[in-house]
Design brief:
By secondary structure, the protein is of the alpha/beta class. 27% of the residues lie in helices and 22% in strands. The longest helix is centred in the middle third of the chain and has 18 residues. The mean pLDDT is 93.
């Protein structure tokens, strides 16, 4: 009898995630090959907490280090949720790029950052990631309801549970949209937690018809059309296309958003990213149906413009735009 053929790679995402012909899956434990240095910011302290024991999911909490006496805030701190990207297939709050972004958000905005992990595809296809994001928000509600909060950094004396903002990068931005729709204006089911607004950084949306920027744009260092298609193929329910409602919020199978009351939404995009037109069109359609939406485009920037270097001049501009948006809400 001949030997069985050796399993070969059928799907590959930068070597971080590989699927094999026998159905097995390889996930890299680190992303050292991306060469992303960890920024050491003594102005911020952080720690990890298990928020979902059923699925073994952790989150990271970040807060300004007031012992440095560099902060101006004299009142309670707002809470910012940070949902990381990765096409629903890769990524973690512990990855250096996401960690650096959270450090910068905590120090730049003077806020407590909650950065939850979520289950990844293809082992856990959508809507698993969105369900986990909701679960993490319910965890926050449980902390707000405790008489004496067990997580000291979330004491009612220190944070304002009525000033919560959700920030999502890439696929995290997609999740932020679906949270805005599911939770509704004022997020009444999370009381006493109240979400005031959503920030979508280059949200990862899809569709079966290519936009002009997708069809004619130049491939990016870590992103091209093949990778975009692969993310949807691995993350959506089996057999579904990128016109699925979880991918295309204004697609042929998506719900009508016009009757819904939504909290304000800030949408950001890079002027040179493949998904620019899709993101811009999303903001335009929200505005057309009467939603409070703001759109900002950073010229000459590609996907991940904030995460690549949150401590840059551009990173400072992003921080300022978020602060201005928060003041409007």
């Amino acid at each position: 009898m001949g030997s069985l053929p050796h399993p070969h790679v059928t799907e590959d995402i930068h070597g971080v995630l590989q699927l094999f012909s026998d159905g097995s899956i390889f996930r890299a434990k680190n992303i050292d090959n991306f060469n992303i240095p960890i920024h050491h910011d003594n102005d911020v302290v952080y720690k990890e907490i298990l928020f979902d024991s059923e699925h073994n999911l952790n989150l990271r909490l970040y807060k300004p280090n007031f012992s440095n006496c560099n902060y101006s805030s004299g009142g309670k701190l707002p809470i910012l949720y940070f949902l990381h990207g990765g096409g629903f297939c890769v990524g973690s709050c512990t990855w250096p790029n996401n960690h650096n972004a959270c450090l910068r958000l905590a120090s730049g905005i003077e806020a407590v950052i909650v950065a939850p992990d979520y289950r990844l595809a293809p082992e856990h296809r959508l809507p698993a990631a969105i369900e986990d994001a909701v679960s993490s928000l319910k965890w926050l509600r449980s902390q707000a309801l405790e008489e004496d909060c067990s997580v000291l950094w979330l004491s009612r004396d220190e944070v304002d549970f009525e000033r919560v903002f959700i920030i999502g990068d890439s696929s995290g931005g997609n999740m932020a949209h679906h949270l805005a729709v599911e939770l509704g204006c004022g997020s009444p089911e999370l009381a006493p937690v109240r979400v005031r607004g959503y920030v979508l950084m280059a949200p990862f949306f899809g569709g079966t018809v290519r936009t002009q920027s997708e069809a004619e744009g130049q491939p990016e260092p870590f992103l091209n059309l093949e990778i975009l298609d692969r993310f949807w193929r691995l993350s959506l329910p089996v057999g579904k296309t990128a016109d699925h409602p979880l991918a295309n919020p204004f697609g042929p199978f998506s719900r009508n958003l016009e009757p819904l009351m939504l909290d304000p939404i800030l949408v950001m995009a890079g002027g040179r990213e493949l998904m620019r037109d899709r993101v811009k069109n999303y903001a335009k359609k929200l505005k057309e149906i009467g939603k409070k939406v703001f759109y900002i485009e950073f010229q000459q920037q590609q996907h991940g413009f904030f995460l690549h270097n949150p401590y840059s001049h551009l990173g400072n501009k992003v921080i300022q735009e978020i602060k201005d948006f928060m003041s409007k809400c």
